[in-house]
Amino acid sequence: MGLMLGIDTGGTFTDAVLVDEHREVIAAAKQLTTRYDLTVGIARAIDSLPPESLSDVSLVSLSTTLTTNSVVEGKGSPVCALLIGYDERQVQNSGLAELLGPEAIVTVAGGHDAGGAEAAPLDEEAVRKAILNWRDKVSAFAISATFSVRNPRHEVRVREIVQELSRKPATCGHELASSLGAPRRAATVALNARMITHVQRLIESVEAILSARGIDAPLMIVKGDGSLINAQSALQRPVGTVLSGPAASVLGACALSGLRDAIVADMGGTTTDIAVVRNGRPELSFDGALIGGWQPMVEAVRVYSIGLGGDSEVRFSGGEGISIGPRRVVPLSLLAAEHPEVLPVLERQANSAPHSSQLRFALRLQHDEALLARLPDDERQAWERVSAKPVDMEYATAEDRRLARALARLERKGLVIYSGFTPTDAAHVLGISSHWSTRAAELGARIWARQMRRLYGCGTWPDGDAEGPSREVFDLVVDGISQKLIEAGLHEQNRLAAAQADKLSRLLTEMVMEQRRDPSKPSLFSVQFASDAPVVAVGGPAASYYPEVARGLRTGLYMPRFAEVANAVGAVLGEVSQRVHLTITQPMRGTFRVFAPDGPKDFPQLAEAVEYARTLAADEAATQAREAGAASVHIDFETDENSVTNEIDGDVFFEMRLTAIAYGPPCRRTDRVVQAVPA
């Protein structure tokens, strides 16, 4: 069978592991992610593994948090959204103006109704005009038509015109989502289009590295539901890899811990992701996972994700006081380890008057050719300046305001990232971590504390104190993780709305943390969390915080061996799985309508409609599974029927949602795809 190579490219670290046929980890490596050139970090991670074992690799699988982080951070490539048949209210409800900018949204006449009939002819002239106007300004096109899940013909036609007039990728809403709800479907397809270039860059980087090292094996990508797809399928539907990293971490955590009931908590550089596992399986969300305020229509592991990680910016936030995240910055300890020349600047800042731009250095983050091609001269010059070395923003603000403003715009566009004081720095000050520059972390804590006191009137730490503010940041991280764990537990009960769960989790967290900080204080209440399901903590920063979280919540904690590379382990343990949903309705008595990919089809009997839908869905699911890289394919069916029985009419059918699930192991170097086998 050979070895399996698992790779996880996160916002901060790139991990690589070798797993044998017994699902045992035989080697692991961790290196910094190099967002400006992913090839560098991936190559370093793979080259840290035993070179003599690489020739035995028969499968490579990749998980990534890059797509999730792009949603959480609000970053992505420029996209034009072509909306067919949308009215002003639907456009507003989609949130696309916030996501893409109002100028990048083009509405044209067309679309269908709920029965699949054409509501208005497609305005092809307007479509062509929009494509010609935007083709040189964007990386991809997002196409969404009203009721396209009932009849996708207008979306398909617009994609044909995009391909005719432009070489840019185009994504259709009906290919990503099968549920009604035009605004959310539009947001989903726009998010997908924004991620295409990011995923393409990642896949090309991995393929180049594998080729250079003589690794001839299929490359798979982890989807948000934990299943696998090959690289070609991931390029077509990158939004499906949202929550790829968290899904892989759940699989890896369960495999490494051996537990079947657990709460998996994955803490990375940008986010903390929590999933509840029962009987060895994480719960799936078929209505879309909530990520950074967006809820794309993708089937994924039900994850409770917050913008709280080791690299989250610690900042002042209005009425909240000190706040952590969701913006990711480069920790000062890491910045100084990579660029020692910043230490004298931090020394100077520690002995000068406080300023809001202190601690902030601008660094290049990533390339995006479409964005770079559109940069005005001042931003192009700033990009070249920051490509050479980090730029001190305090100096730029005082001496070169034009440069400072250009760098700020580049940061908002996702091409540049700032440094700042982070939980990782606080952990270095407290002696919990020591792998980067402790001196830079201490200087950063002192400068940051003085900023909080003198600029914002927040905090009472004495001058020169680094440990006090770092301890407060540490406690805030513990509080944030604890609250999200409690909230995840409340949601699992399915008894509380989101707002109620948030309020109750805040109250319970305050009680828990008060008991943790002063165990001698008498209390009439005692809170114990998840007595039957321990917390399995994975991810790089987890060891710094979760022992204290578990102590406060009075819950079990399991941190298995190789916990810091659990995502990479989980990346190679999934199987290929593709779902195809078809809807059957009864628009009039005695007529049963199947909404097929090529348009609606009517039948006089329900049994005929169901048989047709089963065959159609099974064939399409099997085709998708084989195209996604399955070595062999089995088919399962699920049905969700809405009908009633009464004394007058007997059984009355309203609607059925039929799902065909095609699944099988991924192809390895020696595998050959075989036909689907109904289960």
UniProtKB/TrEMBL annotation:
Q: Which residues form the Hydantoinase A/oxoprolinase domain?
A: 185-327
Q: Which InterPro entries match?
A: ATPase_NBD, Hydant_A_N, Hydantoinase_A, Oxoprolinase-like
Domain Hydantoinase/oxoprolinase N-terminal: from-to ranges: 5-165
Pfam families, per this entry?
A: Hydant_A_N, Hydantoinase_A
Q: What is this protein called?
A: Hydantoinase/oxoprolinase family protein
Q: Which organism is it from?
A: Aromatoleum toluvorans
